Each structure stands twice: as structure tokens, then as C-alpha cells.
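does this look right to u?? manganese (II) ion version
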Amino acid sequence: MAESQLQELRGQVDRLNLQLLELLNQRAKVVEEISKVQAQMGTGFYDPQREADMLTQLEMANNGPFSNETIKALFREIFRASLAMQEKDARAKILVQRKSPDQATVITMPDGVTKIGDGSFTYLTGSCAIESYEQMDQVAQALHKHGVKLMRGMAYKPRTSPYDYQGMGEEGLKIARSVADKYGMYVVSEIMDKSQIDMFADYVDIFWVGARNMQNSFLLKALGKIKQPVILKNGIASTLEEFLYGAEYIVSSGNPNVILITRGIRTFEKWTRNTLDLGAIAVLKLESHLPVIVDISHSAGRRDIAIPMAKAALASGADGLMVEVHPNPPVAMSDAKQQLDLKQFDTLMDTLKKMKI
Ligand code: PEP
Ligand code: MN
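got this back:
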């Protein structure tokens, strides 16, 4: 008798479970509708006041036997799950967000052979600033010897102080172009403003957006309209989310060929210029399908630790390395403390080539 009564009661619980399941999913569908309206309105998903109001309503309506505390705990779980679903759906719409483990943006340069993000390790090296033809030629020769295809050299320098060297301007880009052509390399150089786009297109193969412009949405949107790839640095004090939204501006404006480059983050440490955030590299690779390059020059601010930093970059799962090289670093017009001389660059390249990851 007791046995059959138990069976019957368990049957009731099973039916109630199914009803609850149905209601929970019905509720989730309404939450999805709410997400759409919130997206139209441009408001966030989480509204603490709304949550508090719903809990009060439930408390008032609760006739037991569950206590108010238990009811509130159960509903908080439902709210948490709903918010997680809303955030997951929102992330899925972000173009730079990785959708599957094997998704990868591969950038193919015009020669059809030079690729970034294809699983190879890319070297993007060269001087901090373009200073003269002779300097660029010497550096390019050293890079060419190691098979480097992407040569950096800045003609516009966004210096912290307006009294510091500001770069050679268009004359510098002409030098970079002719030297790169001589050695069969590509020019990577920093653009400061969208008014420079047409002029840059005459000389530059990859447009570089520096840390100070990472959130310049007008520039980023304009770079979404060009056909050349864009390399984007993390800002001076930006979070990874802000960094990826910077990239999203370019991609959502029509240019899928974006490379991320990280300069580390500002911390309290003084013995390095910035702190190379290895976790950031791993997270960027996990969260996004864009290639990630590690800038070991600006993250360290010193050349004497370049080799261990470069080894860490190679082992980190990044797609490449950026290091500054100058024929005579102590007299360089910018970043004299961190640029490698040609011999140090040789040693760095020889050391990395021997490493197998
Ligand atoms: C650079 O790479 O030379 C440069 C200016 O870097 P950042 O934007 O990180 O200052
Ligand atoms: Mn520099």
C-alpha cells in the first residue's frame, strides 16, 4: 500500500519536474526576447534593481512550505543562468570572438607565401623609427639574412613628450619602401590619423595602430575600409575586452585582416618598462581567432632580457614576435634602451631557431 502511494507521489513529482522544465525554458525564451530589445536600446543586460524587485515580488507571493530564503536562493540561480545565456549570445555575435577551437584568421601577404596566423611563427622586426636610408638599409640587410619578411619602421612617432623626436614623416616612408623593395620585404608602419590613409597606401603594406590610438574609433572604422591588413596594439591602460572591441571596430567595418600585438601592461614595476602579460596572450588566443604578436621591446624596455622574453613569446602560443633593431642603439632617436644591435639580433634569431616548440 505504502509502496503504491510512493509510486503515485513520485509520478506527481515527475510531472511537476516536466512542467517546471517547460516553464524554465519558456522563461529563457522571454529572456532572449528581452536581450533583443536591450540590444536595440543599447542597454546592458544586468539590472540589479530589477533583480531586487523580482525577489521582493516572489517573497510577497510565497506561501511556503519553502522559506523565503530558499526561494530567493533558487531564483538567484535562475537569474544567474539567464544572464550567462544573454552574455554568451552577445559574445557569439562579436566577429573577432573565437567560435570554434580550430577557427583562425590567416593573413596572406601579396606574395601568397608570407602568412601570419597559419601556425608558423612570424618575425616582425626593424627599427623603432626611420632615421635615414643608411640606417634602414643596414637593418634590412640584417633582417633579410634571417628571412624576415615584415619590416617595421615608424615615420610618425607618437612620443609621450612633444619635445621628443616625432619622426621623418612621408620622407621616412619613402625610405622604408625603397629599402623593403630592395630586399623583398613588406613595410609595417604606424598611422596616426585617418587623413593619412591614402598617402600611407602608397608606401605601407601593413598599417599599424599604436597603443595611443587603440580606442580611436574613427581611425579604426576608416581602417575597416582599406584592403591592407591592420596590426593593432593594446592601449596604454586597456583591458583585453577593450582591446578586442578595438579590433571589432576594424573587422565590423569590413576589414577581416587584423593582427593583435601586445606591449604588456602598465604595472608598479620599474625595472621593466611594462610587464609582459603572458596570461593575456593565452586569453587572446582562446577568446579570439585573430593572430597575436608579442612586442618584447616595449614590454621590457631593455635589450638585456630580449632573449628570455623572446623564448617566452615563442613558447606562449603566440603567432609571432616583434623586436626593435638598430645599427647603433645608443644613438637611436627613440627607444635607445631597448633596441637590439645587429649582433644581438643575430644571436636572438639563432637562439630561437634552435628552439623547438
Ligand atoms: C612602437 O612600436 O614603436 C610604439 C610606438 O609602440 P607603442 O604604441 O606601444 O608605444
Ligand atoms: Mn619603439
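The first strand starts at residue 107 and ends at 108. idk if thats expected tbh
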